[in-house]
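Query structure, 431 tokens:
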């Protein structure tokens, strides 16, 4: 049974990148809070203004303001990647604004960085501010119970699959290859979901390299191996899905040299955001891989038309599909229920659900003691779901090198002797 909440003001804000369903959480939080005689303050642009001590960038939310909002994409409160933990002064500003506005509860909506910031607000407030965080990201990379997704992921995958399927049909029609770079900094869930559901020719995610650094040569050779294998079966087109997190798997010095090759900033620029992450959207990863592939294929006597396509921004502010429209109502309702509970007086939490029941996850359990950051959920490359994905990809496998006739056929596709083909490409299958 929820205890009576000590004061009547609750604030809500959004951090990180957009994701389908943000408005659904805002709507559910507002409705449940107002129905429990609480006033709801919506802060604009995440922590951006309150970390500067500016308190007037907000709006009071009423039920009429959010009615039907759960079906709309975007965020009526905007969002930002401002990190209030960067300095003690910024965190003091946040607490000062909350105190001056008589706010004693905060619901944050965002990914791992916003969750980390929310945990610091709770800790710095000494328990005076009750904090609930609603996990949001199309990357699906927060450690929620079982296979529970972060909201926004299902909509992004759903809509992204249609785009990838259309590209696949265009590839078939025009006899060319598409290189689709999917959002997903820390984990390859979205890339894998898109590639698997859309039956892409090949999907490459950082998890398959098991934490080791990746080289451009290896990435290109994996793709070239897929192209050769398709050509051996008289198919001259395909779609490759690349998780953008592969960028961070490459040594930063090597990456910087590649980005600035030819002329300054040819492929963008290497910069970091407020949380210390590489701004992956500033790097034209797909175009870089396209140019590297074109050059390498020339040396193998192959000419191939490539088109690079970044996929992510088209998905982030889309109207949510029914799954996320329903799910975000559960999450927003659960956030207010937790805020009003006895438990919220003892710890701040990430709101999650397991088997139909709300399961608040204390911040202390969600933070990795080694890194001091929120734990990341990565694709389990040892499980059957990834094993299934690999079975349906077209890529060089160890068996291609172990069966002499198959090896000879692949080698002949690029006028190589079998032993030379093995020496050139065997390393990508562990030979």
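Result returned for the query:
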């Amino acid at each position: 049974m929820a205890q009576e909440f000590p004061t009547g003001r609750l604030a809500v804000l959004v951090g990180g990148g957009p994701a389908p369903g943000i408005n659904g959480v805002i709507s559910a939080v507002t409705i449940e809070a107002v129905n429990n005689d609480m006033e709801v303050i919506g802060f604009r642009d995440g922590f951006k203004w309150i970390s500067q001590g500016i308190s007037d960038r907000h709006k009071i939310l009423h039920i009429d303001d959010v009615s039907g909002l759960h079906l709309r994409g975007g965020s009526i409160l905007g969002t930002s990647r401002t990190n209030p933990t960067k300095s003690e002064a910024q965190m003091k500003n946040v607490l000062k604004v909350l105190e001056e506005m008589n706010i004693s509860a905060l619901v944050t909506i965002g990914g791992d960085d916003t969750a980390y910031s929310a945990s610091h607000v709770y800790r710095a407030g000494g328990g005076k501010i009750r904090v609930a965080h609603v996990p949001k990201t199309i990357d699906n990379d927060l450690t929620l119970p079982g296979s529970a997704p972060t909201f926004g992921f299902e909509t992004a995958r759903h809509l992204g699959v249609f785009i990838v399927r259309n590209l696949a049909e265009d590839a078939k029609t025009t006899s060319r290859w598409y290189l689709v770079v999917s959002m997903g900094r820390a984990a390859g869930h979205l890339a894998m979901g898109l590639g698997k559901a859309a039956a892409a020719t090949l999907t490459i995610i950082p998890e398959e390299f098991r934490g080791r650094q990746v080289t451009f040569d290896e990435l290109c050779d994996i793709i070239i191996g897929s192209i050769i294998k398709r050509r051996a079966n008289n198919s001259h087109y395909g779609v490759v899905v690349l998780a953008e997190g592969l960028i961070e798997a490459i040594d930063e010095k090597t990456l910087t040299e590649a980005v600035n090759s030819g002329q300054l900033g040819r492929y963008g620029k290497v910069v970091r955001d407020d949380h210390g992450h590489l701004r992956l959207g500033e790097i034209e990863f797909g175009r870089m891989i396209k140019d590297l592939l074109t050059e390498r294929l020339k040396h193998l006597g192959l000419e191939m038309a490539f088109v690079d396509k970044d996929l992510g921004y088209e998905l982030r502010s889309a109207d949510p599909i029914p799954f996320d429209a329903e799910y975000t109502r559960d999450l927003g309702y659960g956030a207010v229920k937790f805020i009003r509970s006895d438990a919220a007086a003892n710890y701040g939490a990430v709101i999650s659900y397991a088997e139909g029941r709300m399961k608040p996850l204390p911040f202390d359990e969600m933070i990795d003691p080694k890194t001091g950051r929120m734990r990341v959920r990565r694709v389990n490359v040892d499980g059957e779901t990834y094993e299934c994905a690999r079975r349906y990809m077209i890529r060089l496998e160890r068996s291609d090198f172990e069966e002499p006739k198959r090896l000879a056929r692949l080698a002949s596709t690029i006028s190589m002797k079998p032993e030379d083909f093995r020496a050139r490409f065997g390393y990508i299958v562990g030979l």
